[in-house]
UniProtKB/TrEMBL annotation:
Entry's transmembrane regions: 12-32, 44-64, 76-98, 124-141
Family according to the record: Belongs to the GtrA family.
Keyword DNA-binding: no
Location relative to the cell: Membrane
Keyword terms, alphabetized: Membrane, Transmembrane, Transmembrane helix
Chief place of localization: membrane
GO annotation, cellular component aspect: plasma membrane
Species this protein is from: Larkinella punicea
Keyword Zinc: no
InterPro entries tied to this protein: GtrA_CellWall_Glycosyl, GtrA_DPMS_TM
Protein name: GtrA family protein
Entry membrane topology: Multi-pass membrane protein
């Protein structure tokens, strides 16, 4: 039962790790857009990159019980490969949904009660949706590829003639 793809323990642990990474992504992305006038798409990308390293170590230590695997380099390479796919899903999924939402419904702005701070709901929901799609693909790929001995790393290493 432990090898089951969607076992409850791994799914809950991964959700907690992903929530930490998602929170970091949203904070970094929002601050970059607001303080440094970085574009929405670049803000999402830089937020994603900022959460990469913390995501790897939290995922390794907490989510898939791989803290004692002694294969950190191998897992880091595979994690990076999965993260490139995930980054594309997050950035372009969020960007496409954001552009679609403003073309269909305009921009929705919410002012936080008792504050002058405004939140662009289109951006927030689009970014959250992109991260949700990424969460699903990440969970499956990390569980079945990154933290499993699949032989892929050895083949890649041999192909690149690395020792």
């Amino acid at each position: 039962m432990k090898d089951k793809l969607f076992n409850q323990k791994d799914l809950i642990a991964y959700f907690i790790v992903a929530a930490i990474g998602a929170s970091l992504q949203i904070v970094v992305s929002s601050l970059l857009q607001e303080w440094f006038k970085v574009s929405y798409e670049n803000g999402v990308l830089l937020g994603y990159i900022s959460s990469f390293f913390i995501g790897f170590f939290l995922t390794k230590l907490l989510a898939f019980n791989a803290k004692n695997s002694a294969k950190t380099r191998r897992e880091m390479v595979k994690f990076a490969m999965v993260s490139v796919i995930s980054c594309l899903i997050t950035v372009y999924g969020a960007s496409a949904l954001y552009n679609f939402s403003i073309s269909q419904n305009g921009i929705y702005i919410f002012t936080l009660p008792g504050s002058v701070k405004t939140v662009n709901l289109n951006k927030l929901f689009s970014h959250t949706f992109g991260m949700g799609l990424s969460f699903i693909s990440n969970y499956i790929l990390h569980k079945t590829f990154t933290f499993k001995n699949t032989g892929f790393y050895e083949r890649l290493k041999s192909l690149l003639n690395l020792n």
